[in-house]
Amino acid sequence: MKTSINVWKKDHSRKEMQWMMEEEEKREFEEIKTEMDEMKQEIAIKKLKRQKDIKMIIEYWIRSMSIKMGWIDDFTTIISRYILTKYFKPLKKFCGHPDFVNSVKFSPKGQQIVSSSFDKTIRIWDIKLAKEIQILKGHLGFVNDAQFSSDGNLIVSCSWDKTIRLWNVNNGEELMKLEGHSGVVTSVQFSPDGQTIASSSYDQTVRLWDMKTCEQKIKLDGHLSWVNDVQFSPDGQHIVSASRDKTIKIWETKSGKRIHTLLGHAGAVLRAQYSPDGQYIVSCSQDKIIRIWDVKLGKGIAKLKGHSDIVIDVKFSPDAQTLVSCSDDKTIRLWDMKFGIEIQTLKGHSKGITRVDVSSDGNTIVSSSKDNTIQLWRPL
Q1: CB neighbours (10 Å) of residue 192?
Q2: Where does the secretion signal sit in this chain (predicted)?
Q3: N or C: which end of the chain has fewer CB within 10 A?
Q4: Spatial distance between the Cα atoms of 224 and 226, rounded to a whole number of angstroms
Q5: In Å, how far from its chain's centre is CA 125?
Q6: Looking at the structure, do residues 37 and 108 belong to the same domain, yes or no?
Q7: What is the pLDDT of residues 92-138, one digit of tens each?
């Protein structure tokens, strides 16, 4: 009898200890949740999708309690990402263009930005001084795109005048004009090694140009409507094009061979960009959806919904942890790449946002808009 009582006491003590540990873990979770809510109020961001993360945390906790006591790796990951996420706020506004600003890009060192506009000009801005330092004039139509070369000494631009032009950053001189497209040139980019320029056009083609000879190297046909965007892969071996025909195509740069056609968007695809490691592509469309694709498989692996209007541009952050998108709904949205959730909405422009870019250190976002302004954003 005495033995039975001792066994019962021992069993009761074990259960009591387990109950106490469970109660302690519950208390810790409640403290974390409270701290997160307080953090949310302090930074005054109303639309953070934190409830979804909290729900995930609780679900993981319940599951872990049924499997084993203690913390699990996924839980720790969620908590870490929650705490370490950067939250951006408006820093500076650049005014000078009298018409829609169509594009904006950082210089390689992040000290300048270049913008293009319906006012037919390209402008270079000093970020620290917060002022315009150069106006490039020469295009005869709206300028759709402009960006720096990898060394920051050149700018390439394209226009409704069907031309591509190269400019000297230091003195603003036009160095060359590339002609060949029979329609509006929508997008233009230097290859990573600076030896080739890729362009896309309303003439339904993508073209590659040799920087040394200023001659067209390859013309890529295959899209059934105008091509809105073209981008090189990080290693320069491939390019991706986005089209009004609702498709995305991946091509070899040397041979011009088409490798994949990505299908999934229900509207015109406006942008497509490689991840920093070249393994993924992110795209956005008139269907208001952002899609992520596996390059090797040539298949979609995720889609992000949240914008209430056309998604005009989307970019990977340098560490590929975050996606930054902009829309005609006047917002910029930041998305967690791993969990596929929206983590912040930025508001500041009074009209649709045309482009976004992220600095090489990931600490600054720049946006251009139909409200004729450029906005700089930095972490809180």
Answers
A1: 14
A2: none
A3: N
A4: 7
A5: 22
A6: no
A7: 999 999 999 999 999 999 999 999 999 999 999 999 998 999 999 99
